Amino acid sequence: MSKLLLSILKRALLPAALVIVGKAAGLYFAIKIFDLNLLVDNDIHGIFTTQFYFTSTADTLLANSISNSFMFLILLIGTLIFLIRANLRISANSNSETLVKIVKLNLLDWITEKDNFLLNLGIWIFFLMGTGVTTLRDSLINVNYDWAAFATLGITIVTLGFTVNTFERKINQVYPRDLNET
User: Is residue 182 situated within a structural domain?
Assistant: First the structure.
């Protein structure tokens, strides 16, 4: 396997684990806060023999919406951290005033890492988009509230726009455009 593929797989472990933990924690909080009834049954005919059921479709809708939103928020926080770090690093490379402010705030260690920050940002935004698409799919099959799906999709699109802008800024920094070209 190539070094790049191994690096991508290594960096994708944390967001993948957070998707699972976020979904499970969201379900747990939904069950505890709203006192939902969860039934466990053994179904011999399915792929998985142990099945979890809620007593009503309204409970399923509520629990799934909360767990999807919780999972999305965890990934959004991680993505925003990488997005802020990437933008600070790009700004510090091109603007000495930004670098001075970062040093005064003692944030230099936060932006000077040996890892490829754009690769990390790309992986996190990929997981965020996957969560947004999953939430939209759940809404289309009526197991997620529509408002949660539209909010998730809207936030994902805005975050993707900022990410594309960050990548463009870095590309322009590495390969500056000739201003005389039209």
Answer: no
In a domain, 19, yes or no: yes
In a domain, 146, yes or no: yes
| Paired strand residues for 39 | 53
- The more confident residue out of 106 and 2 is 2
What is the residue-averaged pLDDT of the chain? 87
Domain membership flag for residue 9: no
Q: Model pTM?
A: 0.85
List pLDDT tens digits, range 19-42.
Answer: 999 999 999 999 999 999 888 887
Cα–Cα distance for residue pair 154/146, rounded to 1 Å? 12
Is 42:51 a contact under the CB 8 Å cutoff?
yes
Give the domain extent around 32. 14-174
How many domains are there within the chain?
A: 1
